[in-house]
C-alpha cells in the first residue's frame, strides 16, 4: 500500500511491502530518485540508494535474512548494549526484534523539516525481553529521507515507569566502499580511542587521517559531531553528522576474521567499512519518565564538494 508523504509532493511516498520471509518493509522514495528501505525486523535500514540508484550501504552476499538472526549489513541498531557482556545477546536485542509502524508518534521539533519523507517505528519490550533486561521502555525510531537523498535516523528512548536504567547504543552503519585500502576517515585525528584488539587499551590517534591496512576495531571517544569517510576510488565522501552520540566505532574485520564469519564472504571486507555513531564509553542513564535522543544524518557527496559540504565542522 502506498501513503503520500504530505500534500507538498505526491510523488514522495512510503510504501509497505513484505520480504520473502513475510516481514514488512517500508520503502521511502523522493522525486529525484533516492530511496531507503527499512525492515521491521530490527528497525534496520537495509538499503540507501542515491538518485542514480547506487547502493550506499554494504550488505554481505552471505547475509542471513531470516529472523531472529540480525542481517550482516545496512544499519543495525545496537541497544541496550554494544558488544558482548552479561546475559544479553551481542549488541543487544533491538536489532533482532519485530518493530511496528507507529501511527501516532509524538511531535518532533520542526527542525526535522517538512522536506522529507519519513516513517515512524516503535519497539516495546516483550515478556522475554523483560526476563533478560527487566526495564520498561519505549523506543521510537524515525527514519527520514530528504529531497536530496540524505538519510536521517532519530531514536528516542523513554523510561516509562519503574526504576532507573542505563544502556549503551550504536547505529552500526555498514558503508559500501570501492576498496578499503583506498578509504580514509577525517575528523577523528588526535582523539583517544579504546582498542578492542588490545583488551580495550586506551590509546591516542596519531595519524593525520585513519587509513586501513589491517583489522581495526576501535571506539573513538568524545568525537566531533561531524566526520567524513572519503572513498578515493569512487570520488565519494560520506558525511556523518550526529547528536547525542559522543563516540564513534570504526571496524573492519580484515582477511583472517572474515574467513571465520559465516555470514561474510572471505574477501568482502574490502568493500565495507563500519563507522558507527555511538554512546558506549559512558552509559546513558534514564530515570523514570526521562527520554534520550540520538540523531544520525548521513550524506553522500562528490569528494570535490566535500569541504564545502562539511561546513567547517571537521577538525584537521
From TrEMBL:
It is an enzyme of class 5 (isomerase). Its EC number is 5.1.3.15. Substrate binds at residues 72, 90, 95. SUPFAM superfamilies: Galactose mutarotase-like. Belongs to the glucose-6-phosphate 1-epimerase family. The keyword Isomerase applies. Keywords: Isomerase. One of its GO terms (molecular function) is carbohydrate binding. InterPro entries: Aldose_1/G6P_1-epimerase, G6P_1-epimerase, Gal_mutarotase_sf_dom, GH-type_carb-bd. This is glucose-6-phosphate 1-epimerase. It catalyses: alpha-D-glucose 6-phosphate = beta-D-glucose 6-phosphate. One of its GO terms (biological process) is carbohydrate metabolic process. It comes from the Eukaryota. It comes from Iris pallida. GO terms for cellular component: cytoplasm.
Amino acid at each position: 500500500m502506498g501513503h503520500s508523504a504530505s500534500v507538498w509532493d505526491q510523488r514522495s511516498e512510503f510504501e509497505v511491502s513484505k520480504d520473502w520471509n513475510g516481514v514488512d518493509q517500508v520503502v521511502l522514495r523522493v522525486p529525484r530518485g533516492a530511496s531507503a528501505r527499512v525492515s521491521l525486523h530490527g528497525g534496520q535500514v537495509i538499503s540507501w540508494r542515491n538518485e542514480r540508484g547506487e547502493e550506499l550501504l554494504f550488505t554481505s552476499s552471505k547475509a542471513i535474512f531470516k529472523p531472529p538472526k540480525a542481517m550482516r549489513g545496512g544499519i543495525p541498531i545496537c541497544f541496550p548494549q554494544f558488544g558482548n557482556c552479561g546475559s544479553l545477546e551481542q549488541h543487544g536485542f533491538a536489532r533482532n526484534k519485530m518493530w511496528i509502524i507507529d501511527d501516532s508518534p509524538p511531535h518532533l521539533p520542526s527542525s526535522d523539516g517538512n522536506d522529507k519523507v519519513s516513517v515512524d517505528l516503535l519497539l516495546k519490550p516483550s515478556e522475554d525481553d523483560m526476563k533478560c533486561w527487566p526495564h520498561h521502555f519505549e523506543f521510537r525510531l524515525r527514519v527520514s529521507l530528504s529531497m536530496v537523498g540524505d538519510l536521517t535516523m532519530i531514536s528516542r528512548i523513554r523510561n516509562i515507569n519503574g526504576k532507573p536504567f542505563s544502556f549503551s547504543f550504536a547505529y552500526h552503519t555498514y558503508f559500501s566502499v570501492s576498496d578499503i585500502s583506498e578509504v580514509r576517515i577525517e575528523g577523528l585525528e588526535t582523539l583517544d580511542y579504546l582498542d578492542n584488539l588490545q583488551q580495550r587499551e586506551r590509546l591516542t590517534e596519531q595519524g593525520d587521517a585513519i587509513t586501513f591496512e589491517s583489522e581495526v576495531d576501535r571506539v573513538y571517544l568524545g568525537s566531533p559531531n561531524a566526520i567524513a569517510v572519503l572513498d578515493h576510488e569512487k570520488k565519494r565522501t560520506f558525511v556523518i553528522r550526529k547528536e547525542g552520540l559522543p563516540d564513534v566505532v570504526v571496524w573492519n574485520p580484515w582477511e583472517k576474521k572474515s574467513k571465520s564469519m559465516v555470514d561474510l564472504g572471505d574477501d568482502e571486507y574490502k568493500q565495507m567499512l563500519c563507522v558507527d555513531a555511538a554512546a558506549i564509553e559512558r552509559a546513558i542513564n534514564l530515570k523514570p519518565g526521562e527520554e534520550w535522543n540520538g540523531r544520525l544524518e548521513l550524506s553522500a557527496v562528490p569528494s570535490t564538494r566535500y569541504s564545502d559540504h562539511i561546513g567547517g565542522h571537521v577538525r584537521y
